[in-house]
Specification:
Layout lengths: L2 H31 L6 H19 L1
Helix pairs in contact: 1-2
Length: 59
């Protein structure tokens, strides 16, 4: 496996983990609010929170 394919594999894993975390948090928020759907603003809040958590873990 070359360097660039290894780097792509690592990035793919990171993106998968982040998207799974976002999906889990959106599901929790949906259950908590009792709504089947969430507004785009609520989902943006989840994404910003997930990004903040990832940044804090990396530092």
């Amino acid at each position: 496996m070359g360097t660039s394919s290894m780097a792509l594999s690592v990035l793919e894993g990171m993106m998968t983990d982040m998207l799974e975390g976002i999906a889990e948090e959106v599901e929790r928020m949906s259950k908590y609010s009792g709504n089947i759907t969430l507004s785009s603003r609520k989902i943006q809040d989840v994404v910003q929170g997930e990004t903040h958590e990832t940044t804090m873990l990396e530092s």
